[in-house]
Specification:
Elements (H helix, E strand, L loop, with lengths): L1 H20 L12 H19 L1 H11 L10 H12 L8 H29 L7 H31 L1 E2 L5 E2 L14 H17 L3 H24 L9 H31 L15 H12 L8 H26 L4 H9 L1
Antiparallel strand pairs: 1-2
Helix pairs in contact: 2-5, 2-11, 3-11, 5-6, 5-12, 6-7, 6-8, 8-9, 9-10, 9-11
Subcellular location: Membrane
Family: Belongs to the mitochondrial carrier (TC 2.A.29) family.
Organism: Stylosanthes scabra
């Protein structure tokens, strides 16, 4: 009896394992293309990770843009002040725009990464199938997803940058003066940006974003896949292993590219003051880096990096882990397996 039950259990486990790696064995049906499954897995992973760390993300933006009353506070003090001024939902201000952005961004990021990786493996076999392919595919995917979704990132930053004053009116984050033209939703932000600068207005700060995302995305995927190669086979499917590899990958990538993120945020809000109390408009990424160092000090290039470390560890860990688990659940095969299937 025990032997029969054991055999049935082994058979069932085998069927489930086979179902998770077959192209047409997913729960979404036989006719769903692989790239659609990759979009679904990436979008879900991005939305979950972004919402988890939304309060930390908002505090980071307030620090990066030197918002009055926040850039000198610690993490706990900033979160506490936000909750007192704007309530619990204030901690998630801008997260709606962030999630609306991150779903297509993460979906495109992971899907194009898989497509670019497949293309490289098929057309440049001399590169092998190691982490160098992940570096190239990840960089290309990062650039593609940023270009397609950047206006939503701009909207998220502008919404998170506004702080409600004690009288309930919007307060300019840098000057400390009350503004009568606060934005309440994504449409308001995008309409204002378009009226101010046309299509270029919607892509203010895109330069440092693209400059930063190419190495960041590439290094992130490179590190994640490299770390997994050093994990014993019996632990390859461990959730803890994936969380750890994802966290370390995000931590490394963010450290290298963080100053570019600060320049991007300041270009997005577009109304910081220099020592002469004049509006600053950075011409490009290099000009932004130089001006920040001259007027605000080199430490400003790493403003918010501490909270970013706190944020990126769970964010990257949840994102990579959720994506890997969604891939298994949806029946998305590994790239090497995918090539052999298509070749057949």
């Amino acid at each position: 009896m025990e032997s029969s039950r054991s055999q049935q259990g082994s058979t069932l486990a085998g069927l489930m394992e086979n179902a998770s790696i077959q192209r047409d064995g997913s729960r979404l049906g036989h006719g769903v293309p692989i790239y659609v499954k990759e979009l679904i897995a990436g979008g879900f992973a991005g939305a979950l990770s972004k919402t988890t760390v939304a309060p930390l993300e908002r505090v980071k933006i307030l620090w990066q843009t030197r918002t009055a009353g926040y850039h000198t506070l610690g993490v706990y003090q900033s979160l506490n002040r936000l909750s007192k001024q704007e309530g619990f939902l204030g901690l998630y201000k801008g997260n709606g725009a962030g999630v609306i952005r991150i779903i297509p961004y993460a979906a495109l990021h992971f899907m194009t990464y898989e497509r670019y990786k497949s293309w490289i493996l098929s057309n440049y076999p001399m590169l092998g199938s190691g982490p160098i392919v992940d570096l190239l595919a990840g960089s290309a995917a990062g650039g593609t997803s940023v270009i397609c979704t950047y206006p939503l990132d701009l909207a998220r930053t502008k919404l998170a940058y506004q702080v409600l004053g004690t009288q309930g009116s919007f307060q300019d984050g840098v000057k400390g003066a009350h503004s009568q033209t606060g934005h309440n939703n994504i449409k308001s932000v995008l309409s204002s940006a378009y009226k101010e600068g046309g299509v270029r207005g919607l892509y203010r700060g895109a330069g440092p974003t693209i400059t930063g995302i190419l190495p960041y995305a590439g290094l992130k995927f490179y590190m994640y896949e490299s770390l997994k190669l050093h994990v014993p086979e019996e632990h390859q499917k461990s959730i803890l292993m994936r969380l750890s590899c994802g966290a370390l990958a995000g931590l490394f990538g963010q450290t290298v590219t963080y100053p570019l993120d600060v320049v991007k945020r300041q270009m997005q809000v577009g109304n910081l003051e220099n020592a002469a109390h004049e509006n600053v408009r950075y011409r490009n990424t290099i000009d932004g880096l130089r001006t920040i160092v001259q007027n605000q000090g080199w430490r400003q290039l790493f403003a918010g990096v501490s909270i970013n470390y706190i944020r990126i560890v769970p964010s990257a860990a949840i994102s990579f882990t959720t994506y890997d688990m969604m891939k298994a659940w949806l029946g998305i095969p590994p790239q090497q397996r995918s090539r052999s299937v298509s070749a057949g």
